[in-house]
Structure formats: C-alpha cells, structure tokens
Design goal:
8-stranded mixed β-sheet; 8 strands; disordered N terminus
Length: 161
C-alpha cells in the first residue's frame, strides 16, 4: 500500500510540474537575437506605441496573411502604419497580447516563436481572454525589428475565461 501511495505522490508531483515546463520553451540559435526578439514581444504585448516606435525600423513590415479572413487584415508597411494599426487595436478594445510558447529558435536573424497567443479585450461585462494557436516570426537587423510576421489560427481560437 505504501508503495502504491508513493507512486501516486510522484505521479501527482510530475503532473503538477508539467505546466511549469511548458512555460519554459525549448530554445536554439543565437541567444542575443532571441533575447532581443523576446524583449520586442514583451513591448508589443503591452501595446506600448511609444516604446514600439523606437523598436521598429522605418521601413518595417507587419504581415499577417492569416488575418485576411478578418474584416480589417493586419498587413502594414512602414513604422507609422504599424504604429497606427496597433494604436487602432488599443482604441477598439484590445488590452494585452501574451505568448505561451512551446519553442523558440533563431536562424538567419529570424526568431521563430511557436505556441499560443493570448489576447485580452474589453467585453461588455469586463475583460475577456482568448487563446489562438500561433507562429510568429520576428526578423531583426541592427537591433531593429524589420518584420513581424504572424500565422494565427483565428478560427481555432478559444475563449479562456
């Protein structure tokens, strides 16, 4: 009986530890580029247009071809257009974007994030959160973001509140 209980305790401990492991994605590639891209995603997630204005290259591109199924797709050319688009999201009700990642890798100054994107929007009764499977690719040049490319499964999104 004691052996059975011990196994159960070990199993429950392993299960409880699993979410913590999911929060630390596998990483490979140039650590400095990954750190820069992660810092960018944090700023992007805050929708801090002032801070983002210092991160995007003047000729940066924001491309989300998967958003073509939406009424206003997210495909912007140039820093000013990107910042105007993000400002529009904030004005429309978007409050926060977070990433829960399963893996991150860098190749040729492109940092690829694989996981889920979580959004928080203002709903009629308060904040509402959604989760979407996602791949985001951030391209860097001289420490600046020159391209943000998203592939989001908008139809596969789930409300998580």
């Amino acid at each position: 009986m004691l052996r059975y209980v011990s196994r159960l305790v070990i199993l429950l401990g392993w299960i409880a530890a699993t979410p913590a492991l999911a929060q630390s994605p596998d990483k490979s590639g140039n650590a400095a580029a990954i750190a820069s891209a992660v810092a960018y995603l944090d700023t992007y997630g805050d929708l801090d247009v002032d801070a983002l204005s210092r991160v995007y290259a003047e000729d940066a591109r924001f491309i989300d071809e998967t958003s073509l199924i939406l009424p206003d797709p997210f495909n912007w050319e140039g820093r000013d257009a990107i910042l105007a688009g993000i400002r529009g999201w904030r004005e429309a009700s978007l409050r926060r974007i977070e990433y829960e990642l399963s893996s991150v890798f860098e190749a040729a100054n492109r940092v690829v994030f694989v996981g889920d994107v979580l959004t928080e929007v203002d709903g009629p009764d308060g904040p509402v959160r959604y989760r979407y499977p996602a791949v985001t690719i951030v391209t860097l040049s001289d420490g600046m973001v020159v391209e943000h490319r998203d592939y989001i499964d908008y139809r596969g999104g789930l409300r998580i509140d």
